[in-house]
Amino acid sequence: MTPKGFSFSAINAGVKAPGTARLDLALIFCDKDAVASGVFTLNKVKAAPVLIGMELVKKGSLRAILANSGNANACTGSGGTDDARALMEETARTLGIHRDEVAPLSTGVIGVKMPVGRMLEKIPELAAGLGGDPAPFAKAIMTTDTFPKVVTRTAGAATVLGIAKGAGMIAPDMATTLAVVLTDAVISKQDLDNIVKTSIESTFNAITIDGDMSTNDTLLALSTGYVTVNTNEISRAVHEVIRELAIMLVKDGEGATKIVEITVTGAGTDAEAKKAAMAVANSLLVKTALFGADPNWGRIMAAVGYSDIPIDPDTIDITVSGYRVVTSGKEAEGFSEDMLHKKLVEKEIAIGIDLKGGSGRFTAFTSDLSYDYVKINSEYRT
Predict the structure, then answer these.
(1) Terminus of the chain with fewer CB atoms < 10 Å: N or C?
(2) What per-residue confidence (pLDDT) applies to 175?
């Protein structure tokens, strides 16, 4: 099921290199002006499409999204901006809309000039292939992803569709990904902005695979406004879609074999709980222990300790998938390394950390760190 008013297309344009046989140039088209919202990377090094997109969403409406994989169009100077605008211009001309109604999205290798000539030639064919299936778009934006990420929810008679890519360079804020959230609900620009910004705090901004923030992070939300529905219902559906996409990103983490939920409670504030949870989630020693199912709980304690929030080490309790590991800052009575090892062998692991210092709470999601992560990222450009 797709929201009313949206159509999709994808083709091969040899973006990364001529002759690559994969979908890598994709288009979403709205049959009317769509209310638009967006959130973008906080990295001070921003790709050309991010800089352009940040300006476009201020206007509040869009008609199309042009996305590519294989090239990030980042660290390409003013020429990169010119290239993005040339692609926007051709897309707009082909669709019969204005250039600034086309938002660009790019993902791939940083610092390489876009093959604009090859891409421009393909845009008429891309536009001609528009149809109701979002699957080709989802496949075309993949890089090291192992599966396309598409989620739908209903809100009354309205539909919310989410599409995302991401498997590496996943860290806040906002988590490294390209994502679009589309709905046919009637919603104001202000309400859509508020829903997206609220939703990402406990979803895209609560996940990490490797602690690296990309230059291209973008989430665009569009609504064609065909269906009248309660705003609370849309808020719920959008949040559910974004949350499921975020968890999909962690499950598909480069080389990942496990997904790990880390919940910190008892912090002074939610912000402090987040700092502690993300310190554990980003710890390479914790992540390698998770991969090897090594019952080295001291690494979790150490990460909480350097998270730079107020704690009393002698009050901390830790559980792993319900098994008590630490009580009052010390190894729990009756602790068994064999039992903890068995918990850590599982593909889904829940770590609970109670600081007993307040009402602050936050849940982060991460993956383990495997040999394959090193292999994938040592060969990314070659």
Answers:
(1) C
(2) 44
